[in-house]
Design a protein that fits this description.
single chain; mainly alpha
């Protein structure tokens, strides 16, 4: 009789551990899936942020290059105008 009661207690304990283990396994699986989804979302967000920063930097570089070209044209025009003025003054002085 004792052996039957002991066997029943062991069997009940084993079933309890098995059920607990399955629940724990399911919760662990859910947690891992949630973590993977979070990591994927964070990677997507990081990629979008990097892409936005690259686009903004490219726009800033293009604007800076255009401004530098405009300034170079102005400087060249100023130098040409100054040279023409000096030439005119030299011609007037020579007369």
């Amino acid at each position: 009789m004792r052996k039957i009661i002991l066997a029943a207690a062991i069997a009940t304990s084993a079933l309890g551990l098995a059920a607990c283990s399955e629940t724990t396994e399911n919760k662990t699986e859910d947690t891992v899936e949630a973590m993977a989804a979070d990591a994927d979302a964070n990677a997507d967000n990081a990629g979008e942020a990097i892409e936005g920063a690259v686009d903004e930097s490219a726009d800033n570089i293009e604007t800076a290059a255009e401004n530098a070209a405009d300034e170079a044209v102005k400087t060249t025009d100023d130098i040409g105008n100054a040279a023409a003025s000096v030439a005119e003054e030299a011609e007037e002085a020579a007369e």
